[in-house]
Amino acid sequence: MTTHAGSLPETAAPLAAVQAKESLGTRLLGWVSKGAVQFFLIVVGLFWLVPTIGLLLSSLRSPQDMSASGWWKVFSAPSQLTFHSYKTLLENGDITKSLLNTVLITVPATLLVVVIGSLAGYAFAWMEFPGRDWWFLGVVSLLVVPVQVALIPIAELFGRIGLFGTIFGVVLFHVGFGLPFAVFLLRNFFAEIPRELLEAARLDGAGELRLFTRVVMPLGGPAIASLGIFQFLWVWNDMLVALVFTKSSTQPITVALQTQVRQFGNNIDVLAPGAFISMVIPLAVFFAFQRQFVTGVMAGAVK
Predict the structure, then answer these.
(1) Bridge partner residues of 246 (DSSP)
(2) For the domain that residue 122 is a member of, what is the CATH number?
(3) Got the DSSP string for 18-52?
(4) CB-based contacts of 104: which residues, under 8 Å, 6+ apart?
């Protein structure tokens, strides 16, 4: 026993040295591989940002400078930077009105889809009513209906009831085509909430509405944020629906910029800042809710 106990440190020392050596090598390999991955991601991110940076710098140059050289000339001649184009943009009534129209279309269309989709998703997940599964199957089947198929019939319908060319009509169209995905996404997310948690709330006297607002909504925050981002980006960047259902007084920024390109091909002092503003607002919304978006996507992947 004494000999064995005394020889234990002698055998443990080389083993500890080997483990320390392997640990150092493993750490070095991990640092190198991690550094390579980070460098690759930084390069990809910079390439992804090149168009955005180029558009920003172009919007800060005069039309004469843009005609004479590329946007990268700013780095050697920073005196070219000016806010004159943005001043011209703000003085353009068509562009400013279209920005307001875009907000009036996007915000209600996003809020209505989130609210109605959340209520319907909760109902399909946790409420019992006749034909629930068949109704949900019908909602899911609407996901495969392309927008192009419904443009002409709905345009004719809106024309008969007086909604064609109005902001309200465009909002209704976006809500109608955004709800199937919203109900499908939120129903599947809400169905993963532990039943015991809901039953405990019901035992405490919570009704369905209070259960939805106090328990389901806080737990479903990441999924709801993800849905809101998807819907906001889709409606804000839409041009097909706006081209069909709007007129000159109700057109959003996407259609207004397309009209400027078509009618005033050399009107770059309005197009560049208008395009940058149209792009930077959804980017700001995405980065503002990025944490909730990633959480919702990862939670959906795990579940």
Answers:
(1) 165
(2) 1.10.3720.10
(3) HHHHHHHHHHHHHHHHHHHHHHHHHHHHHHHHHHH
(4) 167
Q: Per this entry, what is the length of the chain?
A: 303
Please tell me the total count of domains within the chain: 2
Q: Which residues form the domain of 6? A: 2-80
Interhelix angle 290-302/268-288, rounded to 10 degrees, is: 50
Q: Rounded distance, CA 198 to CA 206, Å?
A: 9
Whether 67 and 140 map to the same domain: the answer is no
- C-alpha 177/C-alpha 172 separation (Å) is 9
Confirm whether pTM is higher than 0.85.
no
Token code pair at residue 239: 């041009």
d(Cα 172, Cα 157) in Å, to the nearest integer?
Answer: 12
Confidence band for 25, pLDDT divided at 50, 70 and 90: low
- Whether 20 and 143 share a structural domain: no
Sign of CA dihedral 168, 173, 178, 183: positive
pLDDT tens digit sequence for 100-157: 999 999 999 999 999 999 999 988 988 888 888 899 889 888 888 888 888 999 999 9
User: What are the DSSP calls for the chain, one per residue?
Assistant: -HHHHHHHHHHHHHHHHHHHHHHHHHHHHHHHHHHHHHHHHHHHHHHHHHHHHHHHHHHTS-HHHHHHS-GGGGGT-GGG--SHHHHHHHT-HHHHHHHHHHHHHHHHHHHHHHHHHHHHHHHHHH---TTHHHHHHHHHHGGGS-HHHHHHHHHHHHHHHT-TBSHHHHHHHHHHHHHHHHHHHHHHHHTTS-HHHHHHHHHTT--HHHHIIIIIHHHTHHHHHHHHHHHHHHHHT--HHHHHHB-TTT--HHHHHHHHHHH-TT-HHHHHHHHHHHHHHHHHHHHHTHHHHHHHHHHHHH-
